[in-house]
Each structure stands twice: as structure tokens, then as C-alpha cells.
Design a protein that fits this description.
The chain is an alpha/beta fold. The chain has helices at residues 16-28, 43-52, 70-77, 90-93, 95-104, 115-132, 145-162, 181-192, 196-199, 213-218, 241-257, 279-298, 300-309, 319-324, 351-369, 386-389, 391-400, and strands at residues 6-11, 36-40, 61-64, 80-85, 107-110, 135-137, 166-176, 226-228, 233-237, 267-274, 326-335, 340-348, 382-383, 404-408. It starts with 5 loop residues before the first strand and ends in a 10-residue tail after the last strand.
Length: 418
């Protein structure tokens, strides 16, 4: 692998998030440390993205391949140790890239939230990538890194400091940010392709296992607004929960297979949290809005209407919106005897762009620069998750990059401390 010409290729580099990955690499790495190049389908657009990323990006090579051209994709994938891609919808533009990564044993990270597509990858490639030690890690963006790493930290802290297995983790999100055209296109494509029913399966991404009716009931997606006494706040289902919960449950399922279980009855759910004033009213208004959005995406007329209002592919929020955004994910882990561990993952900046780019680029850099420290050693591979494929290495890199990932056994972590 070290014989390969590049450590990391940034594919989709001319898209809205892709351009930000180029800026991140230019600002945080040097070619002498990480040999990186940019790639996509259109040379002119890639040249513009490189020029926009400033002086430090100018030494990055440009590689061209349409995502549908398997031969051209193979040439790129065979020249790099790690392929990072932001070209989505991934169910449209990602399959040939993953296929090549599995054949050439090239590690892979992306920012998809299209869980039906991830399920297809598991069915097609997990066994071969696992046998070869190739890490294929989808969902390394805002979905689903905070949920997955936050849960991982809370569970492991509970096992370490309380000596107890974890029965349940709940995450509570607060977010401020904008919407990318690519994100809307992916959500709309998932509905239009008739895959939404599959995405409702709570254990869509888990290894096969017989489950009791009780376990299925406890992991069903929440639908209501309610007051949660464990955090003392009003909560509704979180819009990304339908993707994040599947990733966290896959992590739990894989860890169980490897005898590193979170706990025999482990379950996970995810919510959006509301503070005063008028927390209850805000929760019910959001619930109604979420229902209207889902209903809109279900019909082709609704999708057309929403498409005319949403940003187009290639577009996204203004710099000001991205600068003024933030996310905060509060977690509570509960042991069978009721004892609790609390956690928080927090960062400033629009979660769908600033945080996503940090999560994704640091995931690729974990593979590039910390290969010897990765969980499971050199031999671990498969269709993995951020927690199972990158674990503590990514936690530490994100902390070094200014993100807060903390746990506490002394009660909820106060807002002012993050
Ligand atoms: N996980 C998260 O939190 C998160 C956050 C943001 C975005 N996302 C996801 O990331 C994806 C991209 O979002 P975005 O806002 O960056 O979208 P975007 O600006 O529309 O970018 C899409 C990229 O795909 C490329 N592309 C389209 N067709 C292609 C083809 N046939 N061959 C090769 N490349 C092709 C485009 O190339 P051109 O530049 O040449 O058009 C562009 O680079 C979406 O799936 C979105 O859902 C996830």
C-alpha cells in the first residue's frame, strides 16, 4: 500500500462539501506528510475548486473519472491508499467506487446517510473486505459520527468506571445550520427510489440475529413529542435519527460479534431537545413540521414543490450561516441498575458542512496517519462504522481539531462547560 502514489484522494472535490474538503486538507496537512490529490468528473470544475482553496492546495494533482465509468474509477482507486468521497447521492454515484475499493483493498470513507445503500454494500462486500482487512466506512459525516462515537465513549466509560454493562443510550440533539442542495437531492432520491420502507427497519444494518418482540418494540423509531425525565427536557424524534440509530446499532452488533459487547440488552434511541422558553410548544411545532416534510417527500408533486424551494445540487448555505451554526449532542447511558453516565459531543459551525468536513477529513487522516493505532489492528476490515473502524483514534484527532467529546459520571454536562 505504501507503494501507492497517493495516501488520500478527495473524490467529488468540486461539489459544495467537496470544495470544503480541499480547503481542509490544504489548511491542515502538507504534501510531505500526506500525499493527497483531488478527483471528480469535470477537470475544469476541479481546477476551479483547487484555485479557490488557496496556495497550499496548488500542488495537489487532479484526477478525472466519471462515477459511472468503472475503468476510470479503477485507475484512481488503484493509485491511492484511501479514497474519501463526497459525490452523492451515494446510491447514484458511490457503488462503482466502493466496488473498486474492495477489489484494490483501498480504505474508504464517505458522508452518506442513505442506509438502504449501506445495507446493499454490507450484503455485497462485507465478507470480502473483512477477509482482506479493507476498511470501508460510510456515514463519516454529521450523520453519524457524533451519535456513534458519543455512544461508544459513554458505554466504554460506564464499563470502565461503573464496572457495568450498558442497557440503554439516548442522544439529544440541538442544532443550528443550513441545508445543502446535495443533502436534499439524497433525501428526495431515497424517497423517489422506493427505498424508504427499508430505511424504517430499526436493525437494517445489523448482522443477522433473532430478536424478541420486546427488543423490536424498544428499538422502534419514536414518533411523539414527550418530556424526558432523564434529561429534564422536552424532546421529539431527531430528523437524522432514522440513519444514526442504524449505525449505532450496527456498531453494537459488530462489537458483540467480536466479544467487545456494549451490553446484552443494549438499545439506542435519538431525539431533538428543546429548552425554554416554550419548550413544549416548540416540540409540537417541530413534530408537525417533520410530519409535513415527510408527507411532502413521499409524493412526486411534494418532491417537485420542495425541489423548487430547496437549494440545488452544488449549492449550500452562506459563509455566515455556516460560521454561525453549531451542534450539541447530549447523551445519557443507563445501566441495568439505573446508574448513569453522561456525554456530550459539541462543535461550533454548521453541522452539515463545517462539522461534516471535519469529521470526514479527520476520518481519512486517521486511516492515513494512525494506521497502527486503529481499533482491531491491521486485520480489521469490512463495511464498518466510525466507532468500529476508527474508534479512539478519531476521537483523539477530533479533540485535537477543537471538537469537544466528553463523558461524566457526575451528572449532565453543563452548557457553559462546552
Ligand atoms: N453526512 C452529512 O452530514 C452530510 C452533510 C452534507 C452533505 N452530505 C451528503 O454529501 C453528498 C454531497 O453533498 P453536496 O452538498 O456536496 O452536493 P453537491 O454540491 O451537489 O456535490 C455532488 C458532487 O457529486 C458529483 N457528481 C455528480 N454526478 C457525478 C458523476 N456522474 N460522476 C462523478 N461525480 C459526480 C458532483 O460533481 P460536479 O461538481 O462535477 O457537478 C459534485 O462534486 C450528498 O449525498 C449529501 O447528502 C452529507
Amino acid at each position: 500500500m505504501s507503494q501507492r502514489q497517493y495516501d488520500v484522494v478527495l473524490y467529488g472535490a468540486s461539489g459544495f462539501t467537496g470544495r470544503q474538503t480541499v480547503e481542509y486538507f490544504a489548511g491542515n496537512t502538507h504534501q510531505s506528510e500526506v500525499r493527497w490529490a483531488i478527483a471528480g468528473r469535470n477537470r475544469q470544475a476541479l481546477e476551479a475548486a483547487r484555485a479557490q482553496a488557496g496556495e497550499d492546495a496548488q500542488s495537489a494533482d487532479i484526477l478525472v473519472a466519471d462515477a459511472h465509468d468503472q475503468q476510470a474509477v479503477d485507475v484512481i482507486v488503484s493509485r491511492t491508499r484511501i479514497l474519501l468521497t463526497t459525490a452523492g447521492p451515494f446510491s447514484l454515484y458511490g457503488s462503482k467506487i466502493v466496488d473498486a475499493c474492495v477489489r484494490y483493498k483501498t480504505h474508504y470513507v464517505d458522508i452518506t446517510g442513505e442506509t438502504f445503500w449501506v445495507r446493499d454494500l454490507i450484503d455485497r462486500y462485507h465478507d470480502r473486505a473483512a477477509a482482506d482487512g479493507t476498511r470501508i466506512i460510510p456515514c463519516c459525516g454529521f450523520d453519524s459520527v457524533p451519535s456513534d462515537l458519543g455512544t461508544y465513549l459513554v458505554v466504554r466509560q460506564m464499563q470502565k468506571s461503573l464496572g457495568a454493562d450498558c442497557r440503554e443510550v439516548k442522544s439529544f440533539y440541538q442544532i443550528r445550520g443550513g441545508l445543502n442542495g446535495g443533502t436534499f437531492a439524497s433525501a428526495s432520491n431515497a424517497q423517489a427510489s422506493g427505498q424508504s420502507a427499508r430505511m424504517r427497519e430499526p436493525f437494517l444494518l445489523n448482522p443477522p440475529k433473532t430478536r424478541s418482540a420486546e427488543e423490536l418494540k424498544l428499538n422502534r423509531d419514536p414518533r411523539e413529542a414527550r418530556f424526558d425525565s432523564d434529561i429534564g427536557a422536552w424532546a421529539t424524534p431527531f430528523v437524522m435519527g432514522v440513519a444514526n440509530t442504524r449505525i449505532v446499532r450496527r456498531s453494537a452488533g459488530l462489537f458483540e460479534q467480536w466479544n467487545e459487547s456494549y451490553g446484552p440488552e443494549f438499545r439506542y434511541q435519538e431525539f431533538q431537545k428543546y429548552g425554554p422558553p416554550m419548550a413544549r410548544t416548540k416540540a409540537f411545532i417541530t413534530l408537525a413540521g417533520l410530519g409535513a416534510l415527510q408527507a411532502g417527500l413521499k409524493s412526486s408533486f411534494g418532491r417537485r414543490l420542495l425541489r423548487s424551494l430547496a437549494p440545488k445540487p452544488g449549492q449550500g448555505p452562506s459563509q455566515k450561516t455556516m460560521d454561525n451554526g453549531f451542534f450539541r449532542c447530549d447523551l445519557v447511558g443507563i445501566a441495568a441498575d439505573g446508574r448513569k453516565i453522561y456525554g456530550v459531543v459539541f462543535d461550533k459551525g454548521d453541522p452539515g458542512n463545517r462539522a461534516t468536513v471535519k469529521f470526514l477529513c479527520e476520518s481519512a487522516l486517521s486511516l492515513a496517519l494512525n494506521a497502527d493505532e486503529l481499533p482491531g489492528g491491521q486485520q480489521r476490515g469490512g463495511i464498518l462504522t466510525p466507532a468500529t473502524g476508527l474508534g479512539d483514534v478519531l476521537v483523539q484527532r477530533l479533540r485535537n481539531a477543537g471538537m469537544r467529546l466528553e463523558t461524566s459520571d457526575r451528572g449532565p454536562i453543563a452548557s457553559q462547560s462546552v
